[in-house]
Amino acid sequence: MPAPPLPPDEERRLQALRTLNLLDTAPEERFDRVTRLAADLFGVPVAMVGLVDARREWFKSRVGGLGPELPRALSLSAHAIVDDAGMVVEDALADERFAAHPLVTGEPGIRFYAAAPLAAPDGSKVGTLCLIDRAPRRFDARQRALLRDLAAIVAREFAADELQGALARERESAAGLRALIDQLPEGVLVLDENAVVLSANRAAGALFGAEPDALGGRGVESLAADADSVRLAGQAEDAVVTRQLSGRRVDGSIFSLDLTARAVVLDGRRRYAAIVRDAAAPPEHALGPRAASERRHKTFTLASHELRTPLASIIGFTELLLKREFDAPTARELVEIVHAQAATLTTVLNQIFDLARIEAGGRRALHIAPESVNAVLLQAMGSIEALGQNARVVLAVDPGLPPVAADAHRLAMAFSNVLSNSLRYSDEGSPVTVRAWSEAAPAPGAVLVRVSDQGTGMSQEERERLFESFYRGAGARGTVGTGLGMAIFKEIIDLHEAGVEVASSPGKGTSVTVRLPIAGEVTDA
User: Fold this and answer.
1) Exposed (0-12), middle (13-18) or buried (19+): which is 90, by Cβ within 10 Å?
2) Which sign, positive or negative, has the C-alpha torsion 7, 10, 13, 17?
3) Cα–Cα distance measured from residue 350 to residue 373, given in angstroms and rounded to the nearest whole number
4) Cβ neighbours of 172 (radius 10 Å)
């Protein structure tokens, strides 16, 4: 009796089977219905849905027949899954492959066996819908086609499970994104084409003196003392409207309001995204009110553009999945697109919120203390460990360096962003060097840290734009970043009252040197 052959995609097949989460689960009517129908249609005593894992065939549904599972070495389904057309044995005693099989020569005395493979959503054959009889029988082309049709019903249940799981994960992701938006210090309103509030975050609710949900359904003009001052109709797509006007809280009180709004088209429908804030609030660190507002507006403009593409993809593809029925491979491909776009959206939002928190908190939000440069750099390297490129980083820290005045967490984040940039813009085999030393005697007032790579380098124009939000240089290796890492780096370095110099030229790599004040040279503000 020959051993069952291994499918060429065995590892992928086993992973697909595990992903289904069906092994060793309770019987389900949706599968039992198919096996009952199969036994009745073909007039056989045994019909089963069997799943073949690495060591056994386990039966999810059974009419008549065998026990709950079989060793894979005795499984006829293990033979059937290697052929897309399935397998039919009309008389096992006359088939040299199975004439000596224990299940043929002994109990239950199998003589007839027919199976159609069951495909997981990725196309892997994870099991069969099989028929068994104790007497030989003929099985014509029409019957084989009918058995394949019944197997397709089972496979559709597999696909439905995966799709429902994916949609549930996307709903959880959407809830997570909403929770992240609620942490944004600025008020955020999403408006429909008639400028009616669809959603608001907690900061917007606090600004207008109401729970966020209570703002839903209100026209945005009801939140302004002069309705004409806030009309958005006719605003061109991608155009940004910036206004300072008199806002009206829910209790009727009037206050000075900054509003920045942009029209976007999502799934064919116009929407408005608006940031609102109290214009009388204290200015951001080291910036006049007008400069702070202009900077915020510019970042918002760029952020809305960056978020629109993945958000539109998520809405479009999930709407397709909800409204149309796709075959399993196509449905899986659409879900994978949605997942990738959601991951992109989450990454961009996380970095936007990092930047927003850093800008909003200013230096007063930092926890400045004497910190070891070596410890900060090791923490930065730990945060990029997931990139799998730490072996490329060469750390050279002079002994006996004085502690620097720093917020260790924020400073490690800044250096992590520089390291990620150097790794992304240099060849996989090339080193990235991090050197730290103290300023020359007789009166060292700073510790210098230089991150150097042998990557693509930058032109003068690219150097000038390096710290712009959402700017991405050409020549990145692998996944393109969000374009926020170096903007966050510069913001953190500025808050530490540190200096930064960038030296780079095309094809000759880049070095970023940071001059950090030693502890005692700068006081916490």
Assistant:
1) middle
2) positive
3) 26
4) 10
> Which of 154, 151, 132, 152 shows the shortest CA–CA distance to 43?
132
CA 420 to chain centre: 18
Structure tokens at 480: 């393109």
HSE-CB at 240 with a 13 A cutoff on CA atoms is 15
- 178: tokens are 């909403």
Say if residue 121 is preceded by a cis peptide, omega within 30 of 0.
no
More confident residue, 497 or 399: 399
Instruction: For the chain, give the longest Cα–Cα distance.
Output: 100
- Residue 327 vs residues 271, 331, 363, 390: alpha-carbon distances, Å: 32, 6, 55, 42
Q: How many CB atoms lie within 10 A of CB 167?
A: 15
**What three-state secondary structure class fits 61?**
strand
Q: Where does residue 432 rank: exposed (0-12), middle (13-18), buried (19+ CB within 10 A)?
A: buried
The residue count of the chain comes to: 525
For the stretch 436-481, pLDDT in tens is: 998 765 455 789 999 999 888 888 888 888 877 766 666 555 555 5
Query: What is the rounded distance in angstroms from the CA atom of residue 371 to the CA atom of residue 74?
Result: 65
d(CA 153, CA 322): 19
Q: Please give the order of strands across the beta sheet that includes 197-200.
A: 197-200, 187-191, 269-278, 254-266, 240-248
Helix 408-424 to helix 485-495 angle, to the nearest 10 degrees? 150
The whole-angstrom separation of Cα 145 and Cα 148 is: 5
> What is each CA distance from 191 to 79, 120, 319, 430, 522, in whole angstroms?
58, 41, 20, 49, 46
Output the CA torsion sign for 195, 200, 205, 210.
positive
Tell me, letter by letter, the H, E, C secondary structure of 275-297. EEEECCCCCCCCCCHHHHHHHHH
The structure tokens 């959206």 sit at: 345
Backbone angles phi, psi at 256, to 5 degrees: -80, 125
List alpha helices for 43-136, DSSP H.
77-80, 102-105
Neighbours of 365 (CB within 10 A): 14
Query: What's the CA gap between 43 and 60, in Å, rounded?
Result: 21
Is a pLDDT exceeding 50 seen at residue 125? yes
Residues paired with 441 in a beta bridge: none
Alpha helices in 212-326 (DSSP H): 212-215, 289-323
Predicted local distance difference test score (pLDDT) of residue 488: 80
Angle between helices 10-20 and 141-182 (to 10 degrees): 70
* The token pair that represents 198 in the structure block: 């669809």
